[in-house]
Specification:
Layout: H1 3-12, H2 18-27, E1 30-32, E2 39-41, H3 42-47, H4 63-70, E3 77-78, H5 97-108, E4 114-121, E5 124-131, H6 142-157, E6 162-168, H7 176-195, E7 200-209, H8 210-213, E8 224-225, E9 231-232, H9 236-243, H10 254-259, E10 265-266, H11 272-282, H12 300-303, H13 305-314
Parallel strand pairs: 5-6, 6-7, 7-8, 7-9, 8-10
Antiparallel strand pairs: 1-2, 3-4, 4-5
Helix pairs in contact: 6-7
The structure holds zinc ion.
Length: 315
């Protein structure tokens, strides 16, 4: 075959279809940055924790990937996997809520919009909850509320710090009032966790809005956020209409909230694990062996009424 024929044949051959291109992207060999549109080899992108190597944009990741990034291999133990949502109100919009749930479960392999579990982060044990935006926009219904509450209560009993990675459109409207009461329930569990002098760190990721912002996302001892995340309660348009004021462009971003004192630090994803480990180490509750050589009057044991009464009753 002459070179000319070869070119002629090639021209006749079907061009690589857009669909096939997209499939290759979806198959995961290549990933396209939604910010700068640069294509990156997915392996390289994953090695960089799905942060664009070109522009630093944080691509959206889901709960499994987040757990993989934060938890030491082989230490993750899921909690309450069997908890299933029910359609208590027989809610129906275009579809019935129970159909919607089944569809979401098939598509994501998750039972609801959060994964909770115990694991280790740089060798430090903790309770971790990770919301998953794929599942009905990470909306908070009874199961999300119950799983997080149980996670916090278990961590309180086992004296563990809690980290919750938030990503949510807010309360789940299909469960109405039952969704809204989760805000109070989780907040109550967090208060008992706090009373036990344990550390709680929410990590706000894109987007964190509605009832989640209005409850556990803002109740942290230290509140961390990823860069350029949308964080808010009501949407921008609603706020503008209510206040009858034009809002600044960067309104409801992590940078704006940091400047106004709602967020304590913006941590790039590539440094999140290290930062959490540092925070947990700083707040570790007095392992007695660390204070063996400290005089009683100066040690943190002496300042802790629980520990004092425990040693008193033992003696
Ligand atoms: Zn990019």
């Amino acid at each position: 075959m002459s070179l000319f024929d070869w070119f002629a044949n090639r021209r006749k051959a079907e061009p690589i279809s857009k669909e096939r291109q997209e499939r290759e992207i979806a198959d995961g060999l290549w990933s396209k940055c939604s910010e700068c549109s640069v294509l990156t080899y997915t392996k390289d992108l994953r090695a960089n924790q799905m942060v664009c190597l070109d522009c630093g944009h944080h691509l959206r990741i889901y709960s499994d990937e987040r757990v993989r990034q934060l938890i030491d291999p082989g230490t993750w133990k899921l909690l309450d996997e069997a908890l299933q949502p029910v359609d208590a109100l027989k809610f129906r919009d275009r579809k019935s809520y129970s159909d919607r749930l089944r569809e979401m479960q098939d598509r994501t392999g998750l039972s609801d919009a959060v994964q909770t579990g115990l694991g280790q982060l740089e060798g430090l044990p903790l309770g971790l909850g990770v919301m998953d935006f794929r599942f009905m926009g990470g909306s908070m219904g009874s199961v999300v509320g119950e799983k997080l509450t149980r996670l916090i209560e278990r961590s309180t009993r086992e004296r563990l710090p809690v980290v919750i990675v938030c990503a949510s459109g807010g309360a789940r409207m299909q469960e109405g009032m039952l969704s809204l009461m989760q805000m109070a329930k989780i907040s109550g569990a967090l208060e008992r966790h706090r009373e036990s002098r344990l550390l709680y760190v929410p990590v706000l990721t894109h987007p964190t809005t509605g009832g989640v912002t209005a409850s556990f996302a803002m109740l942290g001892d230290v509140i961390l956020a990823e860069p350029k995340v949308t964080i808010g309660f009501a949407g921008r348009r609603v706020v503008e209409q209510t206040l009858r004021e034009k809002l600044p462009d960067e309104f409801q971003t992590s940078e704006y909230l940091l400047a106004h004192g709602f967020v304590d630090a913006i941590v790039p994803r590539t440094q999140l694990k290290r930062t959490l480990a540092q925070l947990i180490r700083l707040h570790q509750p007095y392992p007695p062996s660390h204070f063996v050589h400290v005089p009683d009057s100066l040690s943190r044991h002496a300042m802790n009424p629980d520990y004092v009464s425990e040693t008193n009753s033992a003696s």
